[in-house]
């Protein structure tokens, strides 16, 4: 059997199908595009669903891909077996109404027999129970022995998900021999053991299902095949499992080197090695496609993978951060098939390092806390839902990580209670999603099949005539719209930019002979149809009429200036902060720029100023903006940046601002940077872990801000009775100094007053204090006092009462402070200020600590202060 590397197999497969007339597409991003039914792409067919459902037309009726996939239902099994993994690659060839069963089977057989040259005596075929057509093709056309063709039922060999296209399938198996089997007399194709490996599934979509058990033949049937790249590599490389495949094995070997362990010598260590190897693969590809760690959705999937990998690194005895070293070898071994990994290497490292650093800070304390809770919160072998929720909410432990640790101790989780505690948060998220999808003109609610793709000619023109092809009112097609109605108009061509790429849709007017509509916004559907949301302001608009389209030039020009400025901003940020900066989202309208980017700390005033300066220098240089359509390969060679998660066709639009910024972009842009005028950053803030946001303005909006500031300065000067506004700064400094002095005087007075009260009542306080083993426990609540003063009071009390343990607490409306001091005598008796503070703060929902003689903490549950003081012996 010929040995073949995983990267070779991928290339050989795609080359083979290209020779068979297939269009070879690069892998779609793991983040689904225009499909809310999936969290992450989990099969080679998933991105093709729109073609199978007839929602869009493919660029070729024959397509082949190698698709990145993530599946997480069995995440807890990853590592415990060598069969399970979350990340994999799926090879696939697809026919949309072109060839069918005969060609699909012939192509597959040719690849198996003549290209990768598998030993034919090891090949078995399964078909659907009643699919005589497939049986005859395998037996009579291919000449395959009928004794190795197995008929299986609907569960195994009929592909169907609800209503829509479905059909029988034929699977190709490789027999690994009796030694790999379960030794059962009934072991055969379809058995769950490791002997018969199904590595290629040919799906014949020839029926339409109504979802109720009724099927009708499709006029043009389709082909959808899927072959696991790693499975085929296992067969060709004659290894037992995916972790021994060449590129994946290299990753594991790197982990072994870092940890100082050897694979297959210790089963517990082997589990950790497999977990890290699998999870870092999925994590790197997800981050490359724009997913960021978070506590919901696909971001939570990524966080689960990374944190589980980090914890297993700890189990292997690895100290500190280590994943960056593993990412290096992973990218090196996969960059041939996925060059974006190399291009985004710095960014991937930044995200992983940040998540690893954050989790490691809480991991040790979290494991310690979990060990404690698994003693106090376990009843009859079940860990409480409250304990699970605390670990999730406070220490960032994903539920499956808690479950894994519990499993190691023989403890199960009260997931039902945990789910109840999470329900409110999840419900809010669902409500938000529903709200975001409730727009009446959302394309998912409209039937657009009958309309041709809209011709967009709005880059150069602002007014044209177009034919009104459709009017949609309340999601129904109508022939006319009258005064006062809000509708969606579809025309054969348009000057209105459809909202996409972060740029808002254009506004303006559409006028026919009998009516006029104000265009409130414009969207572009996934099939290229422009949807103009309109309010009828005059007369009647009818289907079939010729209408004059006019966009609002002033608004478009302002949007255009802001969009080009956003490109310059990204370029400037990379110069100031580093090449890890990449766009993570943006919104460009006529008023401002909102630009989200990858970075892990707030920008300094100096960095913001330098960024502003660079952008304004670009503007003042008067750089010509070159916009050109070209082949995507040429665009990448030119250095064009792409947006994470976007899927591009072969021909792309490149916006080049004199080499300072080169991006793939379909938006509107200025011809020369001096048209932008001036650029000003208004704010810089955090929107998520590892994502920062800049809001900025250009042109006339900057002038408005300057005028507003000038007016405010004038009013302040009037209030301060200054003749010259230049004196304001010095005057404010002087006033501030005076205020601080007054505050200090008031604090000193309050301190003297409070201390005098304590001094006057000292004997009474001591007399009423708790005495344990000769230690005088003085516990008091005081008014709002500075922390330094609290410590001063404690020292004075300790000086007067040599056997004291002093606990003083103070609070405002929102938070409280505790200070504890132990005399030498109290310490000798076993009292520890740091432990007292920790115990009390845990009860009062806070944290703190310190030395044995002095400690301090803060808390939020101020309502329980009196309860703690009245029962202080429990906490000391």
Map the helices and strands:
Blueprint: H1 6-19, E1 23-25, H2 49-52, E2 62-70, E3 87-96, H3 101-115, E4 123-128, H4 132-141, E5 149-152, H5 154-157, E6 158-159, E7 164-175, E8 196-209, E9 215-228, H6 229-237, H7 246-259, H8 267-288, H9 297-315, H10 323-334, H11 339-343, H12 345-376, E10 378-379, E11 382-383, H13 385-395, H14 399-408, E12 412-413, H15 415-436, E13 455-456, E14 463-473, E15 476-478, E16 480-482, E17 486-491, E18 493-494, E19 508-511, E20 515-524, E21 530-542, E22 546-551, H16 553-577, E23 583-588, E24 593-598, H17 605-621, E25 625-631, H18 632-637, E26 651-657, E27 661-664, E28 679-688, E29 691-698, H19 700-719, H20 728-760, H21 762-767, E30 770-772, E31 775-781, H22 787-800, E32 804-811, E33 816-822, H23 824-828, H24 833-843, E34 846-850, E35 854-859, H25 865-870
Parallel strand pairs: 1-2, 4-5, 11-12, 13-18, 31-32
Antiparallel strand pairs: 2-3, 3-9, 4-7, 6-7, 7-8, 8-9, 10-11, 14-15, 14-17, 14-22, 16-21, 17-21, 19-20, 19-22, 20-21, 23-24, 24-29, 25-26, 26-27, 28-29, 30-31, 32-33, 33-35, 34-35
Helix pairs in contact: 3-4, 7-8, 7-10, 8-9, 8-12, 9-12, 10-12, 13-15, 16-17
Description:
The protein has 876 residues and is an alpha+beta fold. The chain contains 25 helices and 35 strands. Helix content is 39%, strand content 26%. Helix 7 (246-259) packs across helix 8 (267-288).
